[in-house]
Amino acid sequence: MLTGKKVVVGISGGIAAYKAVEIVSRLKKAGAEVRVVMTRAATQFVTPLTFREISGNPVVCDMWQEPKEWNVEHIALANWADVFLIAPATANIIGKIASGIADEFLSTTVMATKAMVMLAPAMNSNMYINPIVTDNLLRLSKIGYQIIPPDSGMLACGVEGPGRLPEPETIVNTLVRILTRGSDLAGKKVLVTAAGTREPLDPVRYIGNRSSGKMGYALASAAANRGADVVMVSGPSNLPPPPGVVVKKVETAAEMRQAVLDEFGNADLVIKAAAVADYRPSIVSKQKIKKTDGKITLVLEKNPDILAELGERKVKQILVGFAAETEDLLTHATEKLNRKNLDMIVANDVTLPGAGFDSDTNIVRVLYQDGRIEELPQMSKDSLAGQLLDRITALMTNSN
Ligand code: PMT
After folding, report:
1. Which member of 157, 246, 289, 298 is catalytic?
2. What's the whole-model pTM score?
3. Does CATH number 3.20.20.100 belong to domain 6-179?
4. Which tens digit of pLDDT belongs to each residue from 167-196?
């Protein structure tokens, strides 16, 4: 799958450096020509010799070492690469790249390359969620760096949380998918909604929900990777904007409705993964609501159902909804599929561990207009996005 592709693998100094051995091996087996660059710290975890043997090429660890070949210097390697993969990418190398620091071979070569750069961050959870690291990743993703999000789980440092380097197979599959990105959605305009809305009560409080945006962002990213022009209307989310996706940020259901209607006429496909508030406070207090001794009553009024409105207006668009349910999954999802005039609805029982809000994985059933129901196993939201798009592109082909 990677025959003829030139991949530079950058390895920075974290315990996950050992996984890079399998990454290089898998890249070679997929047909890629691989050159490895290691930071000094990385060589403390795995020896350059290991990578030399597996890649079949000299390994560069030092800016000043005597080159083994005439053209192995940072500019030559930067020009040579079709893709640059840094795995593991430590907080340090991410910080250096984001800040434009080029003080050793790896950061210097990355700065000099015009190839696509993919970063697979791996570090302690507290480091990963440190706003400095989050900001650096956001900054890099905004300028087109591809970030492969870390897995969550038990880390080598004994802490449980996000920060684990994904399995080599996942990293290589992601690289293959991005490099050989299918174009089955080329020329299609896709509108995705993501994350939850916030309905203000006063200047500091709101009614919201637990949607993180992970499902919608994964879908937008996957659609862009398949060649679509993607606009994503997103409620508040901490996730970095997916590369190649136009993101329109909104807060309330009313703002989401307006942004969606603005784009709807151009869209071939709409996927509504957002968790939209069904109700909003009737009155938004101009001042912070003061505490009193007694109870207070909030009066709520109904928000417009955006998807139902799209269902009424639809001409050529394929409409895909989500249903987040806590009981009678299929009954409620079927009712929404029909009432909102959808082509497909993705039903998730959000009471299941590993499904629904803020989870990295999801467990869904896919319901179609013709009555078919498909049950999908638990999988990452990224994988699910790919699976759903496979089914949606089939629907689009059949509807033409
Ligand atoms: O963001 P994550 O943390 O990854 O979580 C993902 C998710 C659980 C939010 C996602 O998988 C999901 O289920 N999204 C839909 C949540 C929801 O609001 O479901 P619903 O059953 O209330 O709404 C049904 C459909 O109508 C949805 O497509 C929704 O976007 C849409 N809707 C709902 C209400 C409304 N006023 N307008 C709408 O357009």
Report:
1. 157
2. 0.65
3. no
4. 999 899 888 867 765 678 989 999 999 999
